[in-house]
Amino acid sequence: MDGLVITPMLVVLVAAVGTLLFRRQPRVRLAVSLSGAVGYAVAVAALAWYVVIAPAAPGIATYQVGDWPAPFGITLVADGLSVFMLSMVATIGPASLVFSARYLPKYDRRTFYYPLSHFLLLGVTGAFLAGDLFNLFVWFEVMLMASYVFVAYYGGPQHTRAAFWYVALNLVASAVFLLAVGGIYATTGTLNMADIAQRLADPAAAGIDPAPVVGLLALLLSVFAIKAGLVPFQFWIPTAYRAAPPPITALLAGASKKVGIYAIIRLSFTVFAGAQVPVSLPWVSGSSPLAFVGPILFVMAAGSILVGGLGAVGRDSVEGVLAYSSIGQVGFIAIPVAIAATTSSPTLRRVGILAALVYALNHTIAKGLLFLAAGTIESATGTTDLDELGGLAGRSPALSSAVFVGTLALVGIPPLSGFFGKLLVFDTAVRAGAASVLALLLVGSLLTIAYTSRAWNRGFWGVRTPAVEDAAVDPIQVAILVGLAAAILAVGVEFESVYRFADAAATAALDTESYVEAVDPQAVNGGEQP
Amino acid sequence: MNVRTWPVASLVFAALWVFIRGVELAPAALVGQFLFGLVVGLPVAFVFRRLYVKRIDLQQGVYAAPYAGRYAATFVAELIRANFDVAYRVLAPDPRIEPEVILIPLRVRSDIAVTIIANSITITPGTVTLDHDPETNALYVHVIDGRDLESVVEPIRTWETYALEMFTEKRSPDDPAPEIIVDGGTGNE
Amino acid sequence: MIREAIVIALVLVGSFFLTVGTIGLLRLPNVYNRMHATSKPTTLGTAAIFLAGFVSFGPGSEGLTSLIGIVFLFMTVPTGAHMIARSAQRIGVPFLEGVTWPAESSQARRTDETGEETDE
Amino acid sequence: MSPDLTVVIIAVALPFVAAGLTPLLFRLFGERTGYVGAAVAFACFGLLASQYGSDGTVALSWIPSLEIALRFTVDAWALLFALLASGIGVLVFAYSPVYMHGESGLARYYAALLAFMGSIIGVALAADLIALFLFWELTSVCSFVLIGFHTADRSSQYAARMAMFVTVGGGLFLLVGLLLLALVAGNVLDGSAFDLAAILAEPEAVQAGLRERNLFVPTLALIAVGAGAKSAQIPLHFWLPNAMAAPTPVSAFLHSATMVKVGVYLIGRLRPLLTSTEWLFLFATVGLATMTVCAALAVASRDIKELLAYSTASHLGLMVAGFGFTSVVGAEAGVFHLFNHALFKAALFLVAGIVAHEAGTRRLDELGGLRRDLPVTAAVTAIAGLSMAGIPPFSGFYSKELLFEATVEAAYGLGTLGWIYPAVATIGSVFTVLYSLRFLALFFGRRPDGLGRVHRPPILLLAPPALLAALTAVVSVYPDLAVRAIVQSAVDVTVTDPHSMHVGLPRAYSPAVEMSAIAIGLGAVSYFSFGRIHGGIRSIPVAVPPIGANWWYDVAVDGLTETGSRLASTVHNGLLRTYATWTLATTCVLTISGFVATRAVVGATVGIEASPEIGLVLLVAVVAGVAVVLSPSHVAGILTLSILGFMIAIFYILASAPDLALTQLVVETLILLVFLLILEEIPEYYEVGLGKVARDAVLSIGIGVTAFLTVIVTTSARSEGTSDVARYYTERAVPEGGGTNIVNVVLVDFRSFDTLGELVVVAIAAISVITLLVMRSGGDAE
Amino acid sequence: MSDPTMGAPVLLEMTVAGALILVSGLCVLCSYRVIRGPTVPDRVVALDTIATNVVAIAVLFALLTGRGLFVTVSLVLAIIGFIATVSVAKFVTEGEVIE
Amino acid sequence: MTAVVLAAVVGSLFALGTFLLLRRDLIRVVWGLAIIGQAANVYLLAMGEIAPASFEAVPILAGHGEEASHAQTADPLVQALVLTAIVISFGMTAFALVLSYRVYEEHDTLDLSELGDQD
Amino acid sequence: MTTVIMRTTARAVVPIILVVALSLFVEGHNLPGGGFIAGVLTTTAFALLYIAFGLDFLERGVLGRDIEPGKTPSRDRVVIAYRRVFSFGLAISVASGLVPLLFDLPFLSQTYVEFENVPLYGHLELASALAFDFGVYCVVVGGLLTILSVVGAE
Ligand code: NA
Ligand code: NA
């Protein structure tokens, strides 16, 4: 059954290759793409069932690619955290692909849209499953490489420009990532994440000096913050999100961004948290690298909330608002992580991670819905400029209702998924007794109301513009949006299950011991076979 | 014996394979690798068969061999001379340099002959092939010491003679060599 | 022992000619003349070192490969030099004082610009 | 008697279900869907009425892990509110079809109205903090949709967004307050953190717990912000008059009778838990201030609905103030006035709707003397208006009298300064009388000449307000009826030490009577100078804009938009150098502080023995790098870059990595080739000026130092010899990998998964390049 | 193939090591010409020379370590050097590498 | 391998790459990216400890029967990693180059400061 | 246009490069080389053809297809062929990784078989990783040639 761990990757990889091979047969290619999408969702669901949900589920499963034992071969690890993240992707990924099938016909004959989107999913999935630091790097690169051209996809000045910024910043980040990988290998003598954790937890036994890991973690944090779009690493986001085709932006915001978040949580909490390194600076001190991560994340999150929120208020296009909103929202996700890193209470730590995960889940679905909706609007009216839109609510009630639900989820209205994200994030701050954090969260939430209501008023209410009057809204696109809106509601109504899932994820994220035990890196003298 | 080029080429490639793979000088290994080389060389030769003339005359090859040897001998001699020549020029406190550019019309016309001569010129003393003029079939040669052009041109003419024998050429070695052109009258530049 | 001695000698010869080539590259006055220095001695120098390889590893094994290396060098270095020289002449890198262009044909291709490239 | 869970759930859920079905219902019934709504409301009313007299909590499991459940408490206070909501709901639904005839978007209208009613019933009954918040926020959302009903109308949009901002924003504060409460309750009560019924069962313990943790005042303040925002308390009152952009039935239902009272309701609900001196100061002050200021603003109004809106805010202030006073009589004032106000103000709004509908205008100065045109309406207005003014013996008088008593009682308790409360209350009442008279003048004053023919309203428009007026009349005549029916028991819920309540016309002198007399007398007298007072108050915000209702909001929102757009273009200025600078500088700072934090830098030991040829080669690489920076042209730069690549290849050779050297060189050459291919297409470009070289240099050095430190720190931490993994690969390559080239075996066997990813990257690079070039015109084809 | 267990005799090893350093040093000198030019062909010639030096270095390294496989490496380096030179030269001459 | 020399080289290359990255010329920015990538590779390789040149150091075993003396063999893992990294960064660089050409084509300038405003 | 010298040298050198590349590929498991290096080297051989003979030569001079005069050659056709090569290569690599699943082994498990006493060769080894590496070779050749030809056509 551990074979299930790699199945999502294989499904999406085969789909990618299939769409590449069947480029001349549009129908076959579409069939491959769609069955790949569905297969992916099924594979993730099966994996989630096997690892976390089923009665007597093991909670963690590992896969040794190529049959080499850890830490020598590459390990894939599906624990609660990975599976939770994958489930998010399995929601938005297929939605985006199916949406693309309706959105794309005019381009897809000439380009590699389908293989690229499957490769993007492959990278994301690989990053969530990788149990090896360098392998994580590789899947990061696959994800990035697939996303680069999407930003430049439409080929106009603003697209190429956005892509160039995106590429440039991320290439630097890749080099920094390598630096960190090299440093960690030098310091710990291994690349297997479980092995790293094991060795850091008992440096004397492994005969290593763990002192550099905090600085190396800082390098990694910078890299992941770029993917997550945390201030001051967010610069590429507004233009890139606008430039990419909407279904891809939905993936960038819904999946790629989460890879950044995931990596921060995985490495800080699962891998490095146990390192026996005293940290002391004028403003922080503690006994683990987490003490260092907390304040940094907090500052980044605060910046993100403010820059994203304020920026979104001033935008004049649907995608502009959504892009800035993504910056702000990732701040909300980072806040509880920061608290989790700072606190010494195990409960609060778990609550913090849990809050971040639930918030991230909502962001994936809701922001995915909204970006897809931007695509629908764009393909129906030819614009997403708020000045050229108006009266959409009357023109397409179904579209508007779905968008309304997505918007309310962003604002955090119960019983939608967004509410629980907000509830848990606020709750984390309340439990931490952090008044300043609460103030920040309140300001951020007010900004959310400000920009969502502004965009709504300008685009959906108001006098119908000619563009809207002549709009031809695609019913299947809208059906996908309505489906996502239903998912938003379902998450809220059935929050008990989601909570348990997220709880398992948070627990897994913090449970270094089980992680190490499951991967079971061979003893220092790598001679013996299992 | 006029045969298709590409099977012959594949044999050459197979031999090349043996050299590149660095086979030990044991008959079994040599034959084994040669066969392996054929497996690789045949498709390569077939795919790229249009790169070469369609057929070649094997007898011509046999006939050319001694000339090739003589060519090589002259070449190596010139090569060694060339290097000491350059070393002298480079290391001398006051390098003696009186460069000149000359145009050498060729008698050989086949691609391979022109190329071999041009490259030989470059590797040997005091001369570097600058360019080949396809219309007049002449080589522009940069001469580092242009005071005694005859001695510069002499070995070139010798090679050309050998080359006329080695390759299927219209002209015979007995044809008079055209005069080199030194000054086009445009003066200094 | 003899083999070692030959190898040492070849390495020394090779190093010497490589050095000559480099010094020529630095010392000689313009690109055409520098090319004389680089095309001949570096080829021979490298060939000598390859030959050292042949002696050391040969006659079979990598010795054979060394021979191919030599052949390859003799095929390509002059062609490379020719390409560079041609490009220099085409873009109008001037010859030394007193050099005349043999204007049998195609004078037109001699570009009008004189003087060194603008990049200095 | 314990409530019946099924009945309660149905009462809450029925409106939502109906709301969900509205598109269908509307297809079936068209505009008559309103009557279906009335039926639903009536059913809810009936279901709730069936629980009359019961008291207790029922729960439906929702999120057991967080101990969140759909808990509902049925008690008199809850029933009072829920019955009012569903009862007035019946009337509003019945009123709507005629009033809204011919409007578009009615399906949305009824759906929102139904959902709203469900939410209000939910808030009333909720006994779980999260459930309470759920319904609370839903009322705001429904309100947003309904205020923005005329979606094309800018003022509707403006008002809807403002209401959303204030009420949902206020809701956030409430949420934090509730979470604080839950945090403490969770500790004090051992578990049941979100269980409001459990919390209210132990008010002292919880309050003590809050105080112990210094969380009492924050909790109180946060809840007050939420409640105050919802109930339009100063300074968050401004949204309510704007909300009058909603259709009149909505105004009657949401913005006077029910939703705005949710704040008051919650204050009443939490009163036993949080009552204290702080409570008194907070709510009495805010409430009375709201009562007075908004009454004055009502006087200054020019529009019927605006007048009623300010009046509503003012009366909400009265209720808040009543609950604010810690005496029992204060709670009586709050509860009873909530009841009375719901009846008379809903009637008045519906009247305003009739007037606007039949006369075609809502401007006060264009209306007057309508009693002959609309006699029945005039009678309704008289009853409701006098009740609003607090003239005995109308119902409003009783509850206002209770407030006066409470202020006086408080004043006795608080000393000299405490007399401000009665004084302010009296002044507020003067204004109340004033604007009530002005409203009555619509019917009983002079008929303006410009007013055209005014039709009689259809019976279906008239019946609902008439019914409400009749109820008001009944309460006016028999106040005890209401008290005995529900008000008394509702009051008991909101106080800690209940005692029996008496209302009726005063039979003896008391300060409260005197206050009423002053208010009515002064109001009546000053009515003759109404014009001057009206103009005077109007001129204040003109002279001092910050006093104006919307001024702050506009400044804040416009400021936000402006700041947002400026911030975005400042931060994201379109310059890669800016982006890279921030990104890299942050990376530098973080990393260096990371190394400093663990003293890794201090502990680093540095080796110096060098292999000369490696040193030389790397030196050339660096020199080449410098040359690339200084290169005068693109071609020169690329060639120099190639040296760098070659040197690194040599480095790989010297480091015994033949595969790497090969790869590096072939890749380097291909890159060179691609560079040249690209250079063919672009011109040489020379950077203009040196600009910010110094700044860039500093950053570059920073990055260099960071990388330098990383190398130093990690090399010194590196343990001697090869790693276990490397040893394993070396040992296993031949026996298990079947290859002597260990690197290759690692690539295609041990770590072939990496190689697969690498392959994918190469494939993507190829298809990306094709896509880039093929999609050239794609942007135009959009 | 030389016997790896015996190792290269000292004199040979010293000579080869010295040559290695020398040729590395030559690369430094050549890079002067790449960087200073003055003309693009100068740079190309110098780069070509570096490429040839790299070939030599690989063979020398083969001699130093007794690893014949570096001879194959050097052959590849020679190929690469040729292609690099030719493409730049053509670029300079014709303004385009592939027409 | 000496730490200081290596550190200085990696540091300098990073610094030079960064400096180029901050230029206004598109092509120079790409150079900067390429240099930074190279520096990271050098560093990564060095993290496996650079073995002194010898027969055994080369991570290619002499024959199928030979015993490996891993005390002197250079770390094959980092070599494999660097190889992967080189290939990946090659793909990225090639793409970035073509992209920069497209940027030039769309904006008709190589000056990054002329690419215009955001959003 | 390049000179006859260049073109002739290219004719001679290209097969050498190809043979070297294939040799590196075959021996990659035991000596420096492997799919990637062989692939890039193969690409450079084609690049050399492109440089010496121009972009259309491959179609005309190697594949022997005629191009109608005055018409731009269908470069797309070549690009499509390259694209097929890398798609195919990727498929091979993935498929070679999937095969072990049939034998209930993890993805990308490799094995090798040894043949003893083979005439001429004696001891021979065949590693399954060769299939994976062949995929690598195809992806690299197809991918890089795609880039070169597409960009070169600009
Ligand atoms: Na987009
Ligand atoms: Na002349």
Draw up the topology in text.
The structure holds seven protein chains of seven kinds.
Chain A: H1 7-21, H2 26-53, E1 60-65, E2 74-79, H3 80-103, H4 105-108, H5 113-129, H6 133-151, H7 157-188, H8 193-201, H9 203-206, H10 213-228, H11 237-243, H12 246-272, E3 279-280, E4 285-286, H13 289-313, H14 318-342, H15 346-381, H16 392-395, H17 397-411, H18 417-432, H19 435-459, H20 466-469, H21 475-493, H22 495-510, H23 512-519
Antiparallel strand pairs in A: 1-2, 3-4
Helix pairs in contact in A: 1-2, 1-5, 2-3, 3-5, 3-12, 3-15, 3-21, 3-22, 5-6, 5-12, 6-7, 6-12, 7-10, 7-11, 8-12, 8-23, 10-12, 11-12, 11-14, 12-14, 12-15, 13-14, 13-19, 14-15, 14-18, 14-19, 15-17, 15-18, 15-21, 15-22, 17-19, 17-21, 18-21, 21-22
Chain D: H1 5-29, H2 33-50, E1 56-63, E2 68-74, H3 76-99, H4 106-125, H5 129-147, H6 154-188, H7 196-201, H8 203-212, H9 216-230, H10 239-242, H11 248-257, H12 261-274, H13 277-299, H14 304-324, H15 328-359, H16 375-389, H17 395-414, H18 420-444, H19 459-477, H20 479-494, H21 511-526, H22 530-543, H23 551-571, H24 576-597, H25 600-603, H26 612-630, H27 634-654, H28 658-679, H29 693-717, H30 724-737, H31 742-750, H32 752-774, H33 778-781
Antiparallel strand pairs in D: 1-2
Chain G: H1 4-27, H2 35-53, H3 57-62, H4 75-102, E1 112-118, E2 122-127, H5 129-152
Antiparallel strand pairs in G: 1-2
Helix pairs in contact in G: 1-2, 2-5, 4-5
Bound molecules: sodium ion (2 copies).
Keywords:
heteroheptamer; A: 530 residues; mainly alpha; two-stranded antiparallel sheet; disordered C terminus; B: 189 residues; alpha+beta; Alpha-Beta Plaits; 3-stranded antiparallel β-sheet; 13% strand; globular; binds sodium ion
Count of domain modules of chain B: 2
Coarse morphology of chain F: elongated
What integer value in Å does the Rg of chain B equal? 20 Å
Strand segment tally of chain B:
5
Instruction: Give the percentage of residues in beta strands of chain B.
Output: 5-15%
Query: What is the assigned CATH homologous superfamily of the largest domain in chain B?
Result: Lrp/AsnC effector binding domain/regulation of amino acid metabolism (RAM) domain
Bound molecules: sodium ion
Gross geometry of chain B: globular
What is the string of helix and strand elements of chain B?
EHHEHEHEEH
Alpha plus pi helix count of chain F: 3
Low-confidence stretches of chain F: none
Q: How would you characterize the largest beta sheet of chain F?
A: none
Overall mean pLDDT of chain F stands at 86
Compute the separation of the termini of chain B in Å.
Answer: 53 Å
The largest sheet of chain B, given as strand count, sense and whether it forms a barrel, is: 3 strands, antiparallel
Pair of chains with the largest interface and how many residues each contributes = A-D, 137 and 114 residues
Overall pLDDT of chain B: 84
